[in-house]
Amino acid sequence: MTNPDVSQHRTPPATLRRSLLAMLVGTLAYVIIVASIVVVRFIPAANRLQRESEGAQAEFSESQQRATVLNDNLSTLKSMLAEQRTVDMAPLERMRRELQTMEEQARTLERLALPTETRRDLRPILEANIRREARLRTFLLGAIAAIEVDDPRSASQVLRAADSVAVQALRGIAQAANLALRDIHLTEQDLAQEAQSVSRTLFLVFFAGVLALPVLVLYVRRRFYAPLATLAHGLDRVSSGNLDVHLPSPHDDELGRLAQHFNEMTAVLRRQKSEDAERSEIETAARMRLMVAAALDAVVVMDAGGVVREWNPQAEATFGWTRAEATGRPLGDLILPPDAREGLHRALRDHVSAGESPMTGRLVRAQAQRRDGTLRSIELTITPLERQGIVEFSAFIRDVTDSQRIEQELREAQKLDALGQLAGGVAHDFNNLLHGIIGGAELLRTNPDATPEVREDASLIVSIAQHGADLTRRLLTVARRNHSGTDSVRIDEVASEVVEVISRTFDRKVRIAADLNGGGLLIHGDRSQLSNALLNLALNARDAMPEGGTLRIATSVVAPDDPVRQRHAALAGAGRFLQVVVQDTGAGIAPEVRTRIFEPFFTTKPEGSGTGLGLSMVYGTVQAHRGAVDLESEVGHGTTFRLLLPVAEETATRDAANGRQPSRGRGRILLADDEPVVRNVAARMLRSLGYTVEVASDGVEAVERVRDDPLPFDLAILDGNMPRMSGPEAARAIKQLQPGLTLVLATGTYRRTVEDRFASDGFASALAKPFGMEALSHEVERLLALRRQSAS
Amino acid sequence: MIGPALDSIAGRRMEISRWRNSQGNLDVSAAERAAELVSMSRVVGVVGHAGSRDALLAGAIYQAHGVPDLVPVATSRKLAALGGWVFPLAPDDSAEGAFLSAYAFDSLHARRIVVLYVGDEYGMGIRDGVRAALRARGADLADDVLVPHSVCWMPQMVEVQRLLVRAAVRRSDPEVVVLAVGNDGGCLAQMVAVARPGTWVLGADGAEFVTKRVGQVPTGAEARTRRVVLWQPGADAANATFMERARRVMRRAPNPTDALTYDAYLLLATAVREGGGTRAGVRAWLESLGKTRPPFAGVSGPISFDHAHRVGGRLYLESVPVAP
DSSP letters of A290-306? Predict the structure, then answer.
């Protein structure tokens, strides 16, 4: 099937090709004419004239030479005959041979054939001369023969005949010479005329060529160079990105068609560029709509009067108005409290009139009002959009209520942490003082020389100082120096502290009941976290009982077959567990809410009343203690949280040590502590128990004493925090010097994790400061007994 | 005579241009005629020219322009040397010189041999051929004497000729005189017989023994005079046809020149017909004789050419009259 467009396409006449061909043919014709003039007219004529001239000269010259030879021979023969002397045959024989050779040469093919270029009038003369020469040679040979056969008469006759021929020959030579000279002259004239004629013709041809050259140049410039230059210029412009190029096409030839194709090409490119731009704009708009729709900020577009034109889904979520509801209404009416709306509208008007306003082009923090009337903190950025003379505004709105609250809480936490740090420092120093007081009182109380009244007063001092130590410990807890990790926590104590706190702070409508039956069992845990967990549960219970009720906090050992434990598979076979129960008689938790209450930031409390972090912290704390949280709740009847925590089995051992009287012992002990009071009291306590004690004021001195002392130590008690060299550093150095020495770490921040770590430093045990006589006695005695057992 | 023969051979019309020179010594029109012929594109072959001088003059032109040239009777060895476009039908002067020497030296047992020659290619060629053949036998010419050409009818020149013969006989006392001459063969033979009776006279193929008497010829001179001929009638059918046709057309018995010219015409006609009618085709066909095709059966015998275009032909001696 034939494409109609193609079949109807008519190839335009290739006039450019014809022009080129015509120019080529014209140039060739010109060259051929010039060459023809030279080749056809001048060169043949010159060659012919030259050959004629040379032929005539050669013939004349050779003829003259031969005639001379013959004339000489003739003269020789004549003289021989005239002298009438005896003939010597040798010269005659040579002469005969010479004449024979001359005859042969003259009659050979080449000599007989006169050059065809020899002029017609000269030719018969030369030919007649050749014949005369032949006859002359024949007569000479005959004369020689006659002389040879001694026939002088015949010789004379023959020589006379030869004379006659010689005269004719000389005459012919002269005639030929004249003709030859004339021929040469004529030839030169002909040659000059021919050269002049050819030169004249060539001049005319060249003149015509010179006249035609500018025309040719103009033609080439107009038909070739100018269109090509225009095309090149157009291509340069297109390559530089300018498609608004239109080339003229004055001639319907190849270059004209090329210009037309170029124009068609630029038109297509312009159209494609326009389509690409439109497509790009559409794609950009679609992309922008997607971005706006997917934005996490509320994005609003409004006109110069602040009327909403675009309202993205996040704006719907933030402010509660659907897009259909918001569109066409002033933005201020939708998101701002009544007293702030006029400010927004005024800012927009100011920008339209003055080009700027306090609210446009910058980040503005403000209070917004949702559709339900609740207030939210927002960050608002209003940016003017000017397009085609129309001013619009875009507003990017971010709800920062939650982030501001978290920032506030973080600031408070940082403040508490700073206070804790301060309290911790005070507690540490105070702890050392208490250590001296307790130690001194213990020494006084155990002094056998003291009176009973004195020992009673010392006991009172010890008791009061112990209360002070408890206060110090609490301060350390607040300072979080005693709960990052796993302390040995007596859960009843934690629960008791929480009960004490809430008893003093909760509304009296909430009756608080405590039932602590933990039996003094310890758990490995973070005392502070556990305390906070119980406190959070207590607060939730209080909030659940706005009209009052009973809040019960209880501790107990969980029986292995307890159904609560059975519900948590992770606790199966994990040893003994303590449970802490926080129970209220409040509104209870709806079933649909129970599954979400441990999620971070989930809260059912009114706005501003809770962070949603409390129960998630409780859950995280219990999980961190390898326990479980159990919830029982009934709407209208109350809620019960049970925290199941694994029991630390060392409790029994430590408890077994409690209540025993200090006992005396033997051994050489090194005591290192930078606090003189602590160092002196502890040394006196150990000495009172019968031990030999050497003291050091820091870790460096302790190492030197171990290294330099001639007597070995049985045990070394090293304070954990000393200047120059800490207790662990000193322990590692001492272990290098005396690997078998038993080391005890004395620290005011006793922690299980620290214990685990100092074991790796070489410590056998740790003493929590301030320690009393009993604890010191029992720990030293225990360690020395172990040392003795290992030595035996 | 040639036309009817060609009609019986060629199947198509063929133009034959006949031309004969004047035999003049200084005539150079052979070259002019050759130049005229080669310029005619319809000329695809030439038969001629008669003498060695004209044949060489014209042959050089035919060779230069690529025109096949069949030379019937010229014997110059230089003809074959002209090149591949010239085809001589007669044995060259080297062969003739060897033939004459063999007869004089071997058959006549002559040891003093003189050559009287005219100063053209024919005469000098025969002289050189005889000399070369004698030297091949360890001998040499006793003398070689240049004689004028065609002067028997000129009394003054006849005397000069006689002086030359007498001087040659006096110098060499020849047993055999070889005449490498043209029309003056008879005059010179008489002069030799007078100057030295009993001398053998051997004429070359170009020597003409005319009937002019120039002296008293001794008895028995004719018995010692021979001439080389290039052809003798044979007994084959071709010779019979040729002889019959020649007698009918020319009303005389054909001579060797007639026979060789006849062969040349027929050979060229056959070459034109079978060679494609072009100059190159004619040459190729002629060169193929004796190679890719059998020799041409001429009245002078089988004709073929070797690589140097030398034809293999036979030479004969015949008795000739010395005087009327």
Answer: HHHHH-SSEEEEEETT-
The A-side interface with B (CB below 8 A) comprises: 99-100, 103-104, 106-109, 112-114, 116, 127, 130-131, 134-135, 138-139, 141-142, 144-146, 148-149, 151, 154, 157-158, 161
State how far the Cα of A280 lies from the Cα of A685, in Å rounded to an integer.
Answer: 89
CA-wise closest residue to B196 among B135, B306, B116: B116
Using CA atoms, how far apart are residues A701 and A723, in angstroms rounded to an integer?
11
Cis ω for the linkage preceding B49 (within 30 of 0): yes
- In chain A, the percentage of residues whose pLDDT exceeds 90 is 15
DSSP character string of B248-281: HHHSS---HHHHHHHHHHHHHHHHHHHHTSSHHH
Candidates A31, A28, A32, A38; CA nearest to A201 is A38
Q: Which residues in B lie closer than 8 A to residue A127 (C-beta atoms)?
A: 26
Fill in the DSSP letter of residue A120: T
Query: What are the φ/ψ torsions at residue A518 (nearest 5 degrees)?
Result: -75, -10
Query: Cα separation of B214 and B185, whole Å?
Result: 12
Strand B143-146 with B176-180, pairing: unpaired
- Residues B288-314 have pLDDT tens digits of 998 899 999 888 888 998 887 777 778
Residue A700 clears pLDDT 90, i.e. is over it = yes
HEC string of A130-180 equals: HHHHHHHHHHHHHHHHHHHCCCHHHHHHHHHHHHHHHHHHHHHHHHHHHHH
Q: Write the CA distances from B283 to A132, B79, B86, B271, B276, integer angstroms.
A: 42, 16, 9, 8, 10
| Cβ contact, residue pair B146, A127, below 8 Å | no
| Helix, strand, or coil (residue B126) | helix
Which is nearest to B125 in space by CA: A132, A102, A130, A107? A107
Does residue B139 contact residue B101 with C-beta atoms inside 8 Å? Answer: no
Which residue in A114, A145, A148 is closest to B28 by CB distance? A114
Reported confidence tier of residue A293, pLDDT bands at 50, 70, 90: confident
Contacts of B119 in chain A (CB under 8 A): 100, 103-104, 106-108
3-state secondary structure A392-434: EEEEEEEECHHHHHHHHHHHHHHHHHHHHHHHHHHHHHHHHHH
Q: Which of residues 140-199 of B touch A (CB under 8 A)?
A: 144-146, 148, 151, 156-157, 159-161, 163-164, 166-168, 170-171
Are residues A752 and A485 in contact, defined by beta-carbon separation less than 8 angstroms? yes
pLDDT tens digits, A386-422 = 877 888 899 999 988 888 877 776 776 677 567 667 7
Which candidate, A661, A627, A612, places its Cα nearest to that of A777?
A: A661
Antiparallel, parallel or unpaired: β B301-303 and B296-298: antiparallel
Q: Of the candidates A222, A227, A225, A224, which has an alpha carbon nearest to the alpha carbon of residue A263?
A: A227
Q: What are phi and psi of A473, to 5 degrees?
A: -60, -40
Contact A452, A428 (CB under 8 A): no
| Cα distances (Å, whole numbers) of residue B188 to A131, A364, A764, B197, B228 | 22, 152, 165, 13, 16
Counting residues of chain A whose pLDDT is more than 70, the rounded percentage is: 84
Q: Which two tokens stand for residue A605?
A: 């409390």
Is the model's pLDDT at B191 over the cut of 80? yes
Residue A628 DSSP SS3: strand
Contact, A165 vs A117, CB < 8 A? no
pLDDT of residue A167: 86
More confident residue, A117 or A414: A414
Measure the CA–CA gap between B45 and B28, rounded to whole angstroms: 21
Which residues fall within 8 angstroms of residue B23, CB to CB, at 6 or more apart? B50, B51
Rounded distance between C-alpha atoms, residue A578 and residue B67, angstroms: 140
Residue B126 has pLDDT above 90, yes or no: yes
